[in-house]
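Review box. Two proteins, two foldings.
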Amino acid sequence: MRMTRSVDNVQFLPFLTTEVNNLSWLSYGALKGDGVLFAVNAVGAALQALYIFVYLHYCPRKHVVLLRTAALLGILLLGYGYFWLLVPDTETQLQQLGLFCSVFTISMYLSPLADLAKVIQMKSTQCLSFSLTIATLLTSASWTLYGLRLRDPYITVPNSPGIITSFIRLWLFWKYPQEQDRNCRLLQT
């Protein structure tokens, strides 16, 4: 974004869903007393906030992006209010917050596939990031293994789609190798 001074080929939805995902898991880690989960997601939330600010800086339609960000953060705050004020005991909070986190994790892993139809139609993966695909595969596999180690289905189950969607994207890279001269304009989700 900084190099091109543009967000034309950058999706906003993955940034936003990842930020909500990090903030949700940070809360889950704090409630559970899991320092690893808390620390990793605190760093992730800070980095995602930075990405969102950079995106906003270069985005010509700031009001749309700000509206989407405010709406999703509003949902997050309503969720926090529910978990901290209306759910009586810690075990129930942990279970319900785990489900809440799972929904955002799955949406985060599925959001880069929003342009799947366009990739297949254009027969080009120019609008997909290979490095992000590899990072997603490694991250989701690491969290899945961590969840298995802790026997925590709230960590294991929602990270499994990240492995699957990464393999789908890798298959697309194999089927439609990137070409330097194509210009892929992403759907602005």
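Next protein.
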Amino acid sequence: MDESWEQLHPRQRKLIGALIILTASSAFMCCAAFYNGTTAIGLANRGLTTDATVVDVDRHGRASKVTVEFTPRSGEPLSAECTSCSPELDEGDRVRIRYNPEDLAPGVEDAENHGAQRVAVFNLVAATVLLSGAGFAGWRLHRDRPV
């Protein structure tokens, strides 16, 4: 290992480690916010709403996976995961969904819930908190450095 690393005070090494972890975590949260934001924008701009029927609810712990079936404009019935549907739904329930007819890969969302937008905002807030922590760690490193 580099001698300069070994010469650092243990508190400085911990602060450097925290700075690296907080910065990397913040970058990850920014990427997640970007992905969910583009999904939300795509649904807002090109999304269509329709009624769907819940065909499967897979509950495991606090999380659940809700699969709905709907008929898009193409006329072929499709199944997709509803990313923001309520976990209290049961098979056979009807729900109003929003979907992007050009890209069903991210799934569909409850038309009244705006799940992708909420996740994007949460990720941005989390990234801000993580960057604040990184800024604090950087400030402590700067303050504690020998003159």
